Amino acid sequence: MTGDAKSIGTLVSDLRSTIGVLMARADALLQYQQALQEWQSGSPLDALRVVNLRNGILVIHADNASALTTLRFRQKELLQYLQGYGYQCSDIEAKVAPRPKRT
């Protein structure tokens, strides 16, 4: 081993490393997903997934048009819920998840 070898744990937690940045982003998206699940518990919105956060816009995919329509009606409510818990998003972009292409 060389003198600059690092443990995986060090790389993952170091925000100066590429893997550290990716892991921090994945963790942030997971936290948004968990908040979304808590907000929607007991409702028909369980078909929603957080897929991205870019420039303060939370991107959510719905499995179907019904879930998307319901989310759009409650979008302000979700945004207020997230902001009330300190999440840094200013808007929500929602769309039906693209289907995988068949070959």
Low-confidence stretches: none
* N-C termini distance: 46 Å
Main β sheet profile: 3 strands, mixed
Number of strands: 3
Q: Numbering strands along the chain, what is their spatial order in the largest sheet?
A: 1-2-3
**Number of distinct helices:** 4
* Secondary structural class: alpha+beta
Average predicted local confidence, pLDDT: 85
In N-to-C order, the SSE pattern is HHEEHHE
> In what range is the share of β-strand residues?
15-25%
Fraction of residues in helices? Answer: 40-55%
Described by the principal axes of the CA atoms, the overall outline is: globular
Describe the structure.
With 103 residues, the chain is of the alpha+beta class. Helices cover 47% and strands 18% of the residues. The chain has a three-stranded mixed β-sheet. The model has no long low-confidence stretch (mean pLDDT 85).
Question: What does the secondary structure layout of this molecule look like, with pairings?
Answer:
Layout: H1 8-13, H2 18-40, E1 48-54, E2 57-62, H3 65-73, H4 75-84, E3 91-96
Question: What's the short version?
Answer:
With 103 residues, the protein is an alpha+beta fold. It has helices at 8-13, 18-40, 65-73, 75-84, and strands at residues 48-54, 57-62, 91-96.
Structural features:
alpha+beta; 4 helices
